[in-house]
Design brief:
Layout: E1 2-7, E2 19-25, E3 28-31, H1 54-75, E4 78-84, H2 99-106, H3 117-132, H4 143-159, E5 163-166, H5 169-175, H6 186-190
Parallel strand pairs: 1-4, 4-5
Antiparallel strand pairs: 1-2, 2-3
Helix pairs in contact: 1-4
């Protein structure tokens, strides 16, 4: 049976990775219950400060890959595609915004700009300096972009096995014409 996965890339310390695994039932996409006893447990986040450590990020991505393989085995499904709420790669140096971000701009949907690889190297140095100086994690520079570093590795690791696509929930809600409904309300969840 074909399955589809959605990942909300959350890397907060010790937070379980939010994942949704769905299968088709006639004409409906039905989520599997992943919080039940006996279902494999997703990897936990490592915090923004460690997002600058490529070995930590790669280990996390490999953990996500193993977790999804475990879900396939547990549920007897074949994952066909994985949607990840994160940019798949840094911005190219020769463009001001990634194509996906420019498309969101055109729809008047705000999003953080993804830095280039060169800019990310400067961000890594700044974060490492900040931590070496004994400054606190809650005051990390570029905190709103550090999670992006953690997103690139899952795209590489998972992309070797499955089709991976960038998703942006706010844009999805706009396409479904339910963007005006609070996502945490009963009506928002149903929508």
């Amino acid at each position: 049976m074909d399955a589809f996965v959605g990942i909300d890339l959350a890397i907060a310390k010790r937070k379980l990775l939010p994942v949704c695994l769905c299968t088709w039932n006639e004409d409906k996409l039905v989520p599997k219950l992943l919080a039940e006893k006996g279902v494999p447990t997703p990897p936990r986040g490592f915090g923004n400060a460690l997002s600058v450590d490529e070995s930590v990020v790669n280990d996390f991505a490999n953990g996500v890959l193993q977790y999804l393989c475990n879900l396939e085995h547990h549920f007897g499904v074949t994952i066909r595609a994985v949607g990840i709420d994160a940019p798949s790669a840094p911005r190219r140096e020769d463009i001001p915004r990634r194509e996906a971000e420019a498309a969101l701009d055109d729809l008047r949907i705000s999003c953080f700009a993804t830095p280039s690889a060169f800019e990310f190297e400067a961000i890594r140095r700044k974060v490492k300096k900040h931590l070496l100086e004994g400054r606190s994690e809650p005051t990390l520079p570029h905190a709103a972009q550090l999670w992006m570093l953690a997103g690139f590795a899952p795209f590489r690791a998972l992309g070797a096995k499955w089709e991976c696509i960038e998703v942006y929930p706010q844009a999805t809600m706009r396409v479904l014409d339910v963007a005006d409904v609070n996502k945490k309300s009963a009506a928002g969840i149903l929508a």
